[in-house]
Amino acid sequence: MLLKDKVVLITGGSRGIGAAVAVEMAKQGADVAINSNSGGAAAAEVIAAVEAHGRRCISVEGDVALPETATAFVNAAVEAFGRVDVFVSNAGICPFHAFLDMPAETLKRTMEVNLHGAYFMTQAAANQMVKQGNGGAIVAISSISALVGGEFQTHYTPTKAGVHSLMQSCAIALGRHGIRCNSVLPGTILTDINRDDLSDPAKREYMEGRIPLGRLGQPEDIGGAVAFLASDMAAYVTGAALLVDGGAFVNLQ
């Protein structure tokens, strides 16, 4: 129970990595608030999964690209649970596209959701933590793509590098308030973002062959890393980046 009776907020929490993190937070004893752009049945499933572990959960709909969504999300969590102890910035999109004819709107939307959304949400959560005066933990889901390139991800990789950089700078800005800021860099995790891209058996086999542990990641593989960084076990860890990629990044030969 690393997070017993803590309150954890998660963006993009209705599916994929966000949903898996929400359930892991509940397993570790936390109450959970999730934000998603659509909510609906997917959010209801996450709420049910959290409640199955004896914890409370709320869902707040809203577009993370809008600053007012961040304020509304934090306010709703405080109204429901009284405070914010941990914030997990997870919401992100990656509409794969070639570089030379990248639509301006695709680039703009990816930047707004992945980077601007992380900024606004982190800022709102941090302000609440400062107001409470008891410190806190912020964990951003960056990506191995912050460290490597991607032919069809020229709009996506800069946002993930930016998310990691945001955590480094926030670690400095918020350290005096006892707020720790770290990033998790997942490798290839099977989610809705890349399911179509990995539907080709040959490509999937190639990707699995590059990973020393011999398999693609599952959303649940990220939950433990987030729980550690959010917990008091990481009390002296801030400004760090934790690769969770099955060894893919170091397998250069």
Automatic annotation (TrEMBL):
InterPro entries registered for this protein in UniProt: KR_dom (IPR057326), NAD(P)-bd_dom_sf (IPR036291), SDR_fam (IPR002347)
Pfam annotation, one family: adh_short_C2
Name recorded for this polypeptide: L-rhamnose 1-dehydrogenase (NAD(P)(+))
Sequence similarity: Belongs to the short-chain dehydrogenases/reductases (SDR) family.
Pathway: Carbohydrate degradation; L-rhamnose degradation
Lineage, highest ranks first: Bacteria, Pseudomonadati, Pseudomonadota, Alphaproteobacteria, Caulobacterales
Natural source organism: Brevundimonas bullata
Single GO term (MF): oxidoreductase activity, acting on the CH-OH group of donors, NAD or NADP as acceptor
Protein EC: 1.1.1.378
Annotated catalysed reactions: L-rhamnofuranose + NADP(+) = L-rhamnono-1,4-lactone + NADPH + H(+); L-rhamnofuranose + NAD(+) = L-rhamnono-1,4-lactone + NADH + H(+)
